[in-house]
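Subject: complex prediction, re-run

Hi both,

The earlier run crashed halfway through, so I resubmitted it with identical inputs.
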Amino acid sequence: MFWKKEIECISRSDLDKLQAKQLALSVKRAANSVVYRERFAKAGITSLDNMEQLAMLPFTTKDDLRAAFPTGFLCVPLDKAVRLHSSSGTTGNPTVVYHTMHDLEAWADLVARSLYMTGCRPGDVFQNMMGYGLFTGGLGLHYGAEKLGMLTIPIGPGNTQRQIWFMQQFRTTVAHILPSYALRLALALADAKLMPGVDIKLRTVIIGAEPHTEGVRKKIEEMLCVKAFNCYGLSEMCGPGVAFECQEQDGLHIWEDHFLVEIIDPQTGEVLPDGQEGELVLTSLEREAMPLLRYRTRDLTAVIPGRCGCGRTHRRIRRIKGRDDDMLIINGVNCFPMQIEMVLMKIPGVGNNYVIELRKENHMDKLTVKVEVHETMFKGTLEDLEKLEQHIAALLKAEILFTPYVRLVEPGSIPVAEGKVKRVIDLRKTE
Amino acid sequence: MAEQLSVFMENKPGKIEAVTGALLSAGVNLRGVSIASRGDFGVLKLLPDNPEKARKALVGQGFTVSTRKVVIAIIDDKPGSLHNLLLVLSKNKININDCYGISIEREKNAAIVFDIEDAPEAQAVIEKAGIRTLPDKDIHQL
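This time it finished cleanly. Structure:
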């Protein structure tokens, strides 16, 4: 049941003590970085060992990381760092995150703990369909899966026919996959007349890197005949493995021996109680190379009050609703891309093969939802397509309260960037 | 009963050419073509000599394809034959989604391809009126 029971089921009072001790250590380490040294001097902080004092620290943001490029947050001599991960930096300086050997081992252990929690065991065959490289998705799960003892196939994303061939040849039981790709893979299996559960031995899929709805999860489970577990992480904290679903599938356990959790009001910065939705703020407790204090993840969620049926004491967060900066304001109306996905998921055959495009037209915002037409929704006549288009527009209007333009597009029209599907294309500023 | 392929496509230059290119590489011959388009998208309807081969070739190129049964009626190539055929359908209250004609042998006969919701029923009605329809296996002989 447990990878490390003594830590996964630690009593809350012991966890509090552990967190206070680790926080003091983390602050001490952080003081070695150029940025935090200055901040501590300004705030008059020399040490910090109780949780109340934490609120004295200012937040750390993604912009801070960009501004401190390349080594402003580094807390160890550069020759102690053994790896870096980085964002693409298409919108300015990239955010660079360094790891010592200790950091990589701790990360791999967290991932192994998380995978074990979902039911992965030595002897399983793990096909890692996530991107390898600067993106943490591929390498993060890779080392955790090996540490757990699974036969690991570092195949990376795409090339569906080859994925299927490997799944058949090596009888893959666990896959790590983008939710959008999982649905495509399921369609490809159906096209190849391969039956999940019979011709394909897949039992578990780990999905992450894209926010997705419960509807998407259910659909993946149904189509692939698997259990799908939600995985959360961000490169600033390490990568995937920060929080993970257990077999109860009711929220993601956030590993509190490694990360200190706060939920704040994104507007005021006020700390919110459990149960209330806000922005997730994390403080790393275990990292050496680059501990971050009160880091604003921009991810919207809430801590779920109460204990989990699985016996673990680490609190759970709700599935990520979206990033605070994902929120679109369209002609003054707020709208989250997740709302649009929720609607599309309910329409048979549509699923999440969509992209949202925003443009300015006569000074007004124009929202276009492009939906890929796949075989399951194509009856072969123009009339049916017109009806489908109107149906989608009407259902979307009921949810977002204004009528979007719906455009039917050919499969493969949705752009993929950095291994993640880009769902929102906002051309309002550039046009 | 003959099979017609419907291909979903965006209305952009070069799209139909991509379809004919894929069919050329697969060695598929076409007996009939028709397009229904509406603004930014349309449906290309194809009557290939080998529907399965054509479908595979197009799906392989990433196209969304749907297969529909169609009725092919053979009529004389002379004034009034099409009118007579349509009269049979309208008398039986059968609605036509789409239809197009192919001239087979000049001044001898022509084939009319019907896309009708209940294709088997329409076929029976046409045959009952004494008009010949074309079985699937004969399409390649057109």
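Chain A touches chain B at residues 191, 373-375, 378-383, 385-386, 407-413 (CB under 8 Å).

- K.
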